[in-house]
Design goal:
Keywords: DNA-binding, Phosphoprotein. GO terms for molecular function: DNA binding. The chain contains eleven helices and seven strands. By secondary structure, the protein is of the alpha/beta class. The longest helix is centred in the last third of the chain and has 15 residues. The radius of gyration is 18 Å and the shape is globular.
Length: about 220
């Protein structure tokens, strides 16, 4: 288990009571989870936020009278440090890319198993994101559009110089690897991986790991040379 040495509060927003109860039961077994806020409606969630902003929000996309993307955008404008993990029955690429671009830290199907959910939560807490292969693929496809000749100068203009090691780490991030997995594969420390990741964010001006994936896809850096 990664080193999570602080008590964590997780909130749920989903209109299916039995689903919420099952997820809440799982969450309460995690040793670092201090409390779980179980809500079915947005006003109820906002009331809880006034008491304490949770570390993570597990958000359903479609509920009666609630638009998931709009909720995410509104909450992140007011609480920019909130880490949102989407749990949804919708798996189309357009939903995934929309939510990641809005600022969600991960996107999981509702039939995710207990181990996958725990891994996603722990990676979001420790690295800030959790990308499955499906998320990485959706982000890559979202920027792989035919480039017209007139647009070529604009595409190359924002291409920055990356070291061979930075390119290697960027490719592994695009594959959805965690910092720990990258460190193990490259025989370097996790701290070194995080340093390279921060350099990549600064060089590419990407806001997060989703931005790094988009940058890599846009500039043809997804494949290993």
């Amino acid at each position: 288990m990664p080193n999570i040495d602080f008590p964590v509060q997780i909130a749920l927003l989903d209109d299916h009571k039995l689903f919420r109860q099952g997820i809440a039961f799982i969450l309460k077994t995690l040793p670092y989870v201090e409390s779980v806020v179980d809500t079915a409606e947005l006003p109820e969630l906002l009331t809880a936020f006034r008491q304490r902003v949770p570390d993570i929000l597990l958000l359903d996309l479609q509920m009666p009278g609630i638009d998931g993307p709009e909720v995410a955008q509104r909450l992140l404008q007011e609480y920019p440090d909130l880490k949102i993990i989407v749990l949804s029955m919708f798996s189309a690429d357009k939903f995934i890319t929309q939510m990641i671009k809005l600022g969600a830290r991960s996107y999981l199907p509702k039939d995710v198993d207990q181990q996958q959910l725990r891994r996603a939560i722990e990676e979001v807490l420790t690295t800030g994101y959790h990308f499955t292969d499906q998320v990485s693929r959706a982000l890559m496809l979202s920027v792989q559009q035919p480039v017209r000749p007139a647009a070529e100068p604009a595409v190359r203009k924002d291409l920055v110089q990356l070291t061979p090691r930075e390119k290697e780490i960027l490719q592994l991030i695009c594959e959805g690897r965690t910092a720990a997995e990258i460190a193990e594969q490259l025989f370097i420390s996790r701290r070194t991986v995080e340093g390279h990741r921060q350099n990549l964010l600064e060089k590419t001006q990407a806001p997060n790991a989703a931005g790094l994936v988009q940058y890599a896809a846009k500039h043809g850096l997804m494949e290993k040379s």
